[in-house]
Amino acid sequence: MPKKDQFTSRWGLLMAAIGMAIGAGNIWRFPRLVAQNGGSAFLIPWLIFLFLWSIPLLMAEFAIGKHTRKGTIGSFAEIMGPRFAWMGGFVGFCTIGIMFYYSVVTGWSLFYFFQALTGHLLKIHNHEIFWGQFTGSLWPLFFHFVAISFASYVIYRGIAGGVERVSKLFIPSLFVLMVLAAIRALTLPGAASGLNYLFYPNLEKLVDYRVWLEALSQSAWSTGAGWGLILTYAVYMREKEDINLNAFLTGFGNNSASLIAGMAIIPTVFAMLAEPQALQAMQAGNTGLTFIWIPQLFEQMPLGHFFATVFFLALFIAALSSLLAMVELAARIGIDFGLRRKHAVLMVWAAGFFFGVPSALSLDFFNNQDWVWGVGLLLSGFFFTIAVNRFGVDRFRVQLVNANPTDIHVGRWYNVLFKVILPAEFLVMLAWWFFQSITVYEPRSWWNPLKTYSLGTCLFQWGIVILVLILLNGKIVARIRGE
Predict the structure, then answer these.
(1) Half-sphere exposure of residue 91: CA atoms within 13 angstroms, side-chain side
(2) What pTM does this model have?
(3) Domains of the chain
């Protein structure tokens, strides 16, 4: 592989990998889930699942991508055999499906950054009306176009000249911005109550199984484990790069960013609002918390204009760094099919804009796609688990994970994780979701594929994608092999 197509340093690879993991979910989703699930009680299972789900899958992705030097489809075909290329196709499609609407989120963040920078954001009288007017206009479409175009341009520049260069600049800047926001939040009068809510032991909530399930979901979503994104970046790793240490550093870097975001947002909410209203704000949903409540809080804060600008710039950088990885994943699949990088990126750019239009113009469609492909990540993670088991867990650990001299030698505990614990986590999560959907959430319409958040809409859309991929499996493998 030419040098220009590889990361030139461990620092560059780590910044790209951590940038992939740190996204909007760290800043808007993590604080909300902490508030909804008993504050500190949520942190315990969240940290446990970092080791029992996310880091093992990140190791697997690093190992598979580095070993095969192919994207998701080609990697699965090589690791599992050509009959299973469709599984890699689903992993890739799931993340590409997220890319279509995630570009819209990146555009929202950029729009709000400009609103904060100009001072207009803090002059708005009703932020809920403003949010509704914005999402009902054509501005989200324009900023979606800007976001997908900028991300595609960076990927067009390649790994060393694009992804690595931008990541080295953006990710340290992101941490500085988030630390600034956290310091300001912690110095607000009354911030201690929010910090207490975040960290004071609340062990009674640990008996609630929903806390554990939400923690697993957040760990999978936030770290990018099972997305195929780390696998894609690993294609460009140097041969002697340490897989295990990079996986641990990526997971810890992501969780550190989540905690910093929590310390920036939760104390701010509790400092500015009475506790009942603070909890209401924290549970207002991702978009409600970020684009309706947060601007209102900055209005009440000294130097609110500056810190609103800092917050939305950090949100934009976080979203963009994840979007870059998604565009590269899609482009890498095109390259595996024989396209030159520039042609693959142009196709991804066009498809990304076109298929993102419905989410840019309709919040209902956006929410449906967020639901379908966000939950689909659990199935993607399970496919990685199947791939490792089919290859042979012990063989995978010895030949791929521990292939080079490493600072962290992985022992037989890795075998237990992939043979028993990861499959059990997936099956319990799946059974709980089916049970809740059929008996609690939508007992009469769980099967309806037209409902935004139904079980049926997930099964229907997943089923179509899997069926098409299985039917085309032979042709896909032949194309990757150049036959």
Answers:
(1) 32
(2) 0.94
(3) 3-480 (1.20.1740.10)
